[in-house]
Amino acid sequence: MPPSSPDPALRAAILAALADAPDGVSLPKLCKRLGVRMSVLLRALAWLGEDAIGSTRGEGLVRVEARGALSVALRVRGDDGSATG
């Protein structure tokens, strides 16, 4: 993992929470479940997503999408690269 990637325990907790919710989890609910601030969650999701941060490509494991006024995080790939859902 890149040096600025999320804490391994937070990374594992996010991926586990999303694995248990195939339809995704709203970001506020995910913050509450994990006990982290929204800024911490968004930073971690950025590293776990597909977009590049600087010259470092994200892991491509999750996606955040808008559903009306709500943003939802979804797990799109397993750690082994296999598609989920």
Overview of this structure, please?
- There is one protein chain.
- This protein has helices at residues 8-19, 27-34, 38-48, and strands spanning 25-26, 52-53, 56-57, 62-67, 70-75.
- It contains three helices and five strands.
- InterPro entries: WH-like_DNA-bd_sf (IPR036388), WH_DNA-bd_sf (IPR036390).
List keywords for this structure.
85 residues; Arc Repressor Mutant, subunit A; three-stranded antiparallel beta sheet; globular
Topology, pairings included?
Layout lengths: L7 H12 L5 E2 H8 L3 H11 L3 E2 L2 E2 L4 E6 L2 E6 L10
Antiparallel strand pairs: 1-5, 2-3, 4-5
Give the CA-based shape. globular
CATH domain topology:
Arc Repressor Mutant, subunit A
Radius of gyration over all CA atoms, rounded: 12 Å
The span between the termini is 24 Å
Q: Which CATH first-tier class would you pick?
A: Mainly Alpha
Largest sheet: 3 strands, antiparallel
What oligomeric state best describes the polypeptide chains here? single chain
Helix-strand string = HEHHEEEE
Amount of beta strand: 15-25%
CATH architecture label name: Orthogonal Bundle
Q: Work out the count of structural domains.
A: 1
Helix content: 25-40%
The mean pLDDT is: 87
Q: What class would the helix/strand composition place it in? A: alpha+beta
Number of helices: 3
